[in-house]
């Protein structure tokens, strides 16, 4: 009778009892599939730098564009984590020590989710460097048409 019960069980493969299926592991080879038109232009190397994007005031809606250009040089720092009742608020600043700076805030029920979301928002917030920001602020704005 014990032999019959063993025959009904699934065989355990090299992946353990799950037969090699993934269960919540991190993706090592994350491939970026662009969603926006700007993302496609960046991936096809039609746009060579972040300065070209900020020169034409194009909105960056994918944080992977920032990762594509700045990559490993981008450092993030969690400035503060505040807890209010059942929510956590994370404050994050990012920079690459070459003029690209970004910061943002996000509120979430879990600390890890708040930090991860804040890093993504900080990448999207102000990716243009200080020189183009100074040029944009120094240029005169047209009068408001009535």
From TrEMBL:
UniProt keyword Ribonucleoprotein present: yes
Keyword Cell division assigned: no
Listed GO CC annotations: cytosolic small ribosomal subunit
Organism whose genome encodes this protein: Bos indicus x Bos taurus
Region (Disordered): 1-25
Record-annotated S5 DRBM domain positions: 85-125
Xref: InterPro entries: Ribosomal_uS5, Ribosomal_uS5_N
The protein's name in its UniProt record: 40S ribosomal protein S2
Keywords of this entry: Ribonucleoprotein, Ribosomal protein
Pfam families for this protein: Ribosomal_S5 (PF00333)
């Amino acid at each position: 009778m014990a032999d019959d019960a063993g025959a009904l069980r699934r065989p355990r493969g090299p992946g353990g009892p799950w037969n090699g299926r993934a269960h919540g592991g991190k993706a090592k080879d994350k491939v970026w599939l662009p969603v926006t038109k700007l993302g496609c232009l960046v991936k096809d190397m039609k746009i060579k730098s972040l300065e070209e994007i900020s020169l034409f005031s194009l909105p960056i809606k994918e944080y992977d564009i920032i990762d594509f250009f700045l990559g490993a040089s981008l450092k993030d720092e969690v400035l503060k984590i505040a807890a209010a009742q059942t929510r956590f608020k994370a404050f994050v600043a990012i920079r690459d020590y070459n003029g690209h700076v970004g910061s943002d805030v996000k509120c979430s029920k879990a600390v890890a989710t708040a930090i991860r979301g804040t890093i993504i928002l900080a990448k999207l917030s102000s990716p243009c460097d200080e020189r183009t920001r100074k040029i944009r602020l120094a240029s005169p704005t047209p009068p408001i048409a009535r």
